[in-house]
Amino acid sequence: MAEKLAKTVVGIFGSITSIWWGKYLVMFIISLMPILELRGGLIAAALMDAPMLPSFIVCFLGNILPIPFILWFITEIFAYFKKRGKRIGKFVTKLEKRATSKKEQIERLKYLGLILFVGIPLPGTGAWTGCLIAALLGMDKKKSCLAAILGVIMAGIIMLIFSYGILGGILK
Asked: Which residues does 39 contact at the CB level (< 8 Å), separation at least 6?
């Protein structure tokens, strides 16, 4: 799924990739997205035949940028939107329920659980969801931020092996 979404986003921004920094902008944007994150950014990097180390750095920065905002502000943002209207309130409640349905691993293992949740690249996991769960559980924000960053590094290493190793071998 991440590969298809990454290909779609690369296709949308295809013309910008002809500029020398265009590939990196596309990777950065993909890495900011809640569903794709660094995983999709590194797949896109491999698809665009971008160098591995600069791609990792750009995707890493794109993926960690939202972490502090999620940890420090998401509960207040959710509370605000719940008060604003029925439709948006239902949507926020749905997001909270979806996130809390995946909280067992984090709740049981605390910060190690957060590292593993963010770091093991499976559907529905990642920094966005992990930080949302940590915020909803009221975990320490600084420790959660560090755990999420370590998880992103772990996911990045796994995805480098996949994107530039296995996927790269198949595509070339």
From this structure: 2, 121, 126, 155, 159
* Same domain for 128 and 89: yes
| Positive or negative torsion for Cα 95, 34, 16, 21 | positive
Residue 89 to residues 16, 83, 84, 86, 147, Cα–Cα distance (Å):
37, 7, 7, 5, 29
Position 134: which residue type?
A: A
Question: pTM, whole model, 2 decimals?
Answer: 0.83
Question: Domain residues for 163?
Answer: 2-63+155-171
The crossing angle, in degrees rounded to 10, of helices 141-160 and 52-64 is 150
Model confidence pLDDT, tens digit, residues 26-56: 899 999 998 889 999 999 898 888 999 999 9
Residues 71 and 139 in one domain: yes
